[in-house]
Design goal:
Length: 252
């Protein structure tokens, strides 16, 4: 019933919220359609699949208003990001999704979407250990999509066929990011170290729009940049604690 309450609260929201806020509220007429579908299927009884670290899953939603429910486990303190992207980027089968993330107690902890973006994500700094539930709703067009998860609680390795893993100081690492993909890199730093990370498009006339998010050893977001349409982005900060930092990179 927590889900029902949240949906009712969203319905009562007087206007569509500003774009991009991870905790922003959103309401559309299409959202009301999905309400009926979710009521018919108790939220706690459904799961369409399980998300694991750095593992891309391909799925689809067939009709506007339908939803998929994904679960994953996290420990308190983990910094977690779940990102999805449409597989079809044009026409009326290009997914327009809303993501609602619930913690093990059933409380909504993050939401994003319903803007017509081809890729979007939700993120959180977990305060509870246990099974989290992500509801993906086709609020606009339905369609095929890919979805993947990265967490500061995951081992830092490059998944098969993808990129990521430990970074070397002064070394240029290369990779590829498609719509909805995310790559997780990591490095060790000591308290007091000055850190500078720069990411750029390696393809001539490429379309990469880099986003960088840096998480500290405690799983908290340290700094981030992106969303300006530049071909290169950078972040700099001073480490305040020893440990492994995680770098999550995506493209808009
Ligand atoms: Ca990649």
């Amino acid at each position: 019933m927590e889900l029902m309450k949240t949906l009712t609260d969203l319905h009562a929201s007087p206007r569509r919220a500003a774009k991009g806020g991870p905790h922003s509220q959103a309401k559309t007429l299409a959202f009301l359609f999905c309400l009926a579908g979710l009521v018919a299927m108790p939220e706690t009884a459904r799961a369409d699949g399980t998300l694991t670290c750095n593992n891309i899953i391909y799925s689809d939603i067939g009709s506007t208003g339908d939803s998929n429910i994904w679960t994953f486990t996290a420990n308190a303190g983990d910094g977690v990001i779940v990102r999805l992207g449409a597989q079809v980027l044009t026409g009326t089968n290009s997914l327009d999704a809303l993501m609602l993330l619930y913690n093990p107690a059933g409380t909504l902890v993050a939401q994003n979407g319903d803007y017509g973006d081809k890729a979007l994500d939700v993120s959180m700094h977990a305060t509870n250990s246990g099974t989290y539930r992500l509801v993906v709703i086709a609020v606009g067009f339905p369609g095929a999509y890919l979805i993947n998860l990265a967490s500061t609680g995951c081992p830092s390795v490059a998944p098969p066929g993808d990129q990521g893993g430990p970074m070397t100081n002064g070394w240029m690492h290369t990779g590829y990011i498609g719509i909805g993909d995310l790559d997780a890199w990591s490095f060790y730093a000591s308290a007091g170290d000055g850190i500078f990370i720069r990411m750029g498009n390696s393809a001539t006339n490429g379309t990469l729009d880099p986003y960088l998010r840096i998480y500290g050893p405690d799983g908290a977001l340290v700094t981030w940049t992106g969303g300006y349409g530049y071909l290169a982005e950078e972040v700099s900060f001073r480490a305040t604690t020893n440990g492994t930092f995680t770098v999550i990179v995506v493209t808009r």
